[in-house]
Amino acid sequence: MANGGGALAPGMAVTFCARDAATARRDLVRAATELRAAFEPVSLSPGQAHALVDDDWSTLPGPGGGIAGAVYFSCVSRTGAYFGAPHAELQIVRRALGRVPLVGVFTAGEIAGRQLHAYAGTLLAFGTGA
């Protein structure tokens, strides 16, 4: 139960959720793409724009040098067949972030603040600080 396993009290809010693989995939792509965009420069030179189109990410700068690396924490219940194949979830993140060092970690519960979450994925990216 949301309140630590006790009975629901009158006036408590209750939320029902359904797991949906297509929605989870779209949300993962959106979140990773937004995170990558936060590290990219606001504008690109013509040469950088062509490099992006040509998939040559090595010449693209970002604020502080861009993403230095990322860690993706995934609930063990989200993987495998839920995303279509083994390692598919991490590959979705890899494709959205581009060519950055990426590590994946399976968890059996995710903690945010004082709340324990289940079936969640958390993406952490860090910059070069340059």
DSSP helical segment count: 3
Structural classification:
alpha+beta
Topology as a string of helices (H) and strands (E): HHEHEEEE
Distance between the termini: 45 Å
Shape: elongated
Mean pLDDT: 80
Radius of gyration: 18 Å
Low-confidence stretches: none
Topology, please?
Elements: H1 21-39, H2 46-53, E1 67-75, H3 88-97, E2 102-107, E3 110-112, E4 115-117, E5 121-127
Parallel strand pairs: 1-2
Antiparallel strand pairs: 1-5, 3-4
Helix pairs in contact: 1-3
Pfam families: FIST_C
Organism: Paracidovorax wautersii
Protein name: FIST C-domain domain-containing protein
Quick rundown:
The chain is an alpha+beta fold. It contains 3 helices and 5 strands; from the N terminus they run ααβαββββ.
Overall description:
- With 130 residues, this protein is α+β, with helices and mostly antiparallel strands.
- The protein has a domain at 21-39 and 65-128.
- Helix content is 28%, strand content 22%.
- The chain has helices at 21-39, 46-53, 88-97; strands at 67-75, 102-107, 110-112, 115-117, 121-127.
- It has a three-stranded mixed β-sheet with strand order 2-1-5, with helices on one face. Strands 3-4 form a two-stranded antiparallel sheet.
- β1 (67-75), α3 and β2 (102-107) form a beta-alpha-beta unit.
- α1 packs parallel to α3 (88-97).
- The radius of gyration is 18 Å and the shape is elongated.
Question: Could you list some keywords that capture this structure?
Answer:
130 residues, alpha+beta, three-stranded mixed β-sheet, two-stranded antiparallel sheet, 3 helices, 5 strands
